[in-house]
Amino acid sequence: MSLALFRWSVVLLLCLFTSAAVAGEVRTRKNKAKAPKLVSLEGGHQLHRDTATAFQRMALDAAKHGVVLTVTSGYRSPHEQRWLYEQYRQGSGNKAARPGQSKHQLGIAVDLIVGKRTSKRYRWLTANACRFGFRRTVRSEPWHWEYHPRSTFPPVAGFNCLGRKTRPPEPPTSVATQDPS
Question: How many Cβ atoms from other residues are within 10 Å of residue 160's Cβ?
Fold first, then answer.
C-alpha cells in the first residue's frame, strides 16, 4: 500500500469517527417520564404494575364469588431473597429460590393464603386464575402464583381453567307486577 493511500485511509477513518462522536454529543435523548414499575397493594406488598393490575382484577372477581385473596409475599429485593435463601439453606426457613432465580425479584410472583387444596379459595384459583394471566409454576407450592399473560391462555368459552364446563349464567328472574285493574 502506498503512503498516500494509507494517509487517505487514516483521514477517512478519523472523519467517520469524529463525525459520529460529534453527532452523538449533539443528539440528546429526551427523558420520558416513566411510571414506577413497582406499586403497592393494600396490605403493603409490592408487585410489578402490570401484575398488580391483573391481581386486583382477579381479587375483585374472586370477591364476587365469596373468595378473599390475601397476599403474603410479592416483590422481594435481591437482599431479601438472599436472606431467605440463606435461611432455607441453614434449615431454619421456608423453601426459597436462589437469588436471581426467583420471579419475586421481578415482581411478577405472588404468594397467597390458599389453605388446603380442597379449600374454596384454592379451587377458585385453579379454576379461574388463568383468565387473569396467573398460573402455578412451582408444583410443591400451591400458594405460589406467577403472572405470565402472554403464555397463560384463558379458557375456552363455557369452560374454566381446568377444562371443566361452567354453568351458564342464570337468567334474571323477572318479578311480575300485577295490574290492579
Answer: 16
Among 38, 62, 64, which residue's Cα sits nearest to residue 52? 38
What is the DSSP secondary structure assignment for residue 131, as one 8-state letter?
G
Contact call for residues 125 and 150 (beta carbons, < 8 A): no
d(CA 106, CA 137): 15
| Segment 143-164, tens digit of pLDDT | 999 999 888 888 878 877 888 8
Residue 36 CA, distance from chain mean position: 14
- What confidence tens digit (pLDDT) does each residue in 5-33 have? 667 776 666 666 665 555 555 555 655 55
Cβ neighbours for 66, distance < 8 A, ≥ 6 positions apart? 120
Residue 180 backbone phi and psi in degrees, to 5:
-70, -5
Q: What are phi and psi of 12, to 5 degrees?
A: -60, -45
Secondary structure of 19-59 as H, E, C letters: HHHHHHHHCCCCCCCCCCCEEECCCCCEEEHHHHHHHHHHH
110, 70 contact by CB (below 8 A):
no
- Residues 177 and 71: their CA atoms lie apart, in Å, by 47
Segment (H or E) for 145: strand 144-147
